[in-house]
């Protein structure tokens, strides 16, 4: 069968022209405005021609500092040391922060950003559903002079999620070398990032339809968390630690020492109602108490001890009773008339 070479060439030229027009219609990722902010959020949305992704500058970010984070000295030391080495160009690890809720995991990452932003540190927040774009994010920032922390908050996976494999590859498993100016910081309430079930222990029994190598199921689940070079654990606060954080935030909102002392009882009741003593609960209580229910300035609530120390109020003298008037004096009772019995 003979082919018309010229006809095939014309067809190829037309196809190339058509593809060029289609590419012009596809959404293009705009170059990020790197000077607009020190923190960015990775955005992703579907369009008629596929997914469009871009870096959105965060205009209003948290201003929390390292000094605001109380009673987490060891985690703060580890994270700050790792971040400082990273911005100085020294070897540093990807970090997994795990533990109790509200104990300062995400706040610590934001505080490190504020502490080292002047040294070129930048933050990119990525949602769990968008972790499949991690290779694109790394390629986008690989040639930049800044240091980037890719931050994923409240990270956990269910079986079969696409982001699980993408994160494993990005951490340690891709054929390409990891970029020297990118680290991944993730927070989670789960140490191994995936649910662990009792049935996995039952599968270890040698049954007729059981797994030949049951230990490989557990190996698969811990393989992701193991790729983070640094694990940092956070624990619930003791009562004194919780009250110290409450005092710090009340002072931040302008309360006096007397007002802070008066708020102790209310702070303990607040934590009891929520079933948790943490930095987040302390922050929420301080905002509520310092602002007042009616939005007025902070006012100290008088404690029982203060009430007991106050002098008793002067008792008003009792006015003497008025002398009885003659009309009000008791009159002698009249003699009862004798009763006559009828015979």
Major sheet: size, sense and barrel closure?
7 strands, mixed
Low-pLDDT runs = 293-318, 324-330
Run of helices and strands = HEEHEHEHEHEHHEHHHHH
| Adjacency order of strands in the biggest sheet | 2-1-4-5-6-3-7
How many helices? The count is 12
Average of per-residue pLDDT values: 76
The level of helicity is: 25-40%
How big a fraction of the residues is strand?
Answer: 5-15%
- What is the straight-line distance between the termini? 159 Å
Give the C-alpha Rg.
36 Å
- Total number of strands: 7
Shape: elongated
Question: Helix- and strand-based class?
Answer: alpha/beta
Describe this structure as you would to a colleague.
- The protein is an alpha/beta fold and 343 residues long.
- 39% of the residues lie in helices and 13% in strands.
- It contains twelve helices and seven strands.
- The chain has helices spanning 5-25, 73-87, 105-116, 134-141, 162-172, 198-202, 215-226, 239-252, 257-262, 264-274, 279-291, 304-309; strands at residues 39-47, 50-57, 95-99, 121-125, 147-152, 182-188, 230-234.
- A seven-stranded mixed sheet has the order 2-1-4-5-6-3-7.
- Strand 5 (147-152), helix 5 and strand 6 (182-188) form a beta-alpha-beta unit.
- The radius of gyration is 36 Å and the shape is elongated.
- The model is unreliable at 293-318 and 324-330 (pLDDT under 50).
């Amino acid at each position: 069968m003979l082919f018309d070479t010229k006809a095939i060439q014309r067809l190829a030229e037309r196809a190339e022209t058509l593809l060029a027009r289609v590419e012009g219609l596809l959404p293009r990722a705009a170059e990020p405005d790197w000077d607009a902010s020190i923190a960015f959020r990775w955005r992703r949305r579907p369009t008629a021609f596929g997914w469009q992704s871009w870096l959105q500058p965060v205009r209003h970010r948290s201003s929390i500092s390292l000094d605001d984070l109380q009673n987490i000295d060891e985690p703060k030391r580890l994270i700050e040391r790792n971040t400082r080495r990273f911005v100085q160009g020294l070897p540093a690890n990807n970090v997994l922060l795990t533990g109790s809720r509200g104990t300062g995991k995400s706040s610590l990452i934001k505080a490190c950003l504020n502490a080292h932003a002047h040294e070129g540190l930048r933050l990119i927040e990525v949602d769990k559903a968008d972790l499949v774009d991690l290779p694109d994010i790394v390629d986008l920032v690989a040639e930049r002079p800044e240091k980037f922390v890719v931050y994923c908050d409240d990270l956990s996976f269910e079986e079969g999620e696409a982001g699980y494999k993408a994160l494993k590859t990005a951490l340690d498993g891709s054929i390409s070398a990891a970029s020297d100016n990118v680290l991944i910081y993730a927070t989670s309430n789960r140490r191994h990032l995936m649910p662990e079930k009792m049935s996995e222990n039952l599968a270890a029994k040698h049954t007729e339809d059981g797994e030949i190598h049951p230990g490989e199921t557990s190996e698969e689940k811990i393989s992701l968390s193991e790729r983070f070079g640094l694990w940092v654990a956070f624990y619930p606060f003791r009562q004194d630690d919780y009250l110290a954080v409450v005092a710090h935030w009340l002072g931040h909102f302008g309360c006096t020492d007397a007002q802070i002392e008066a708020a102790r009882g209310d702070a303990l009741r607040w934590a009891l109602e929520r079933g948790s003593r943490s930095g987040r609960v302390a922050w929420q209580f301080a905002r509520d108490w310092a602002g007042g229910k009616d939005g007025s300035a902070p006012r100290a609530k008088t404690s029982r001890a203060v009430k007991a120390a106050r002098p008793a109020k002067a008792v008003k003298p009792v006015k003497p009773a008025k002398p009885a008037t003659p009309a009000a004096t008791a009159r002698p009772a009249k003699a009862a008339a004798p009763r006559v019995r009828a015979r």
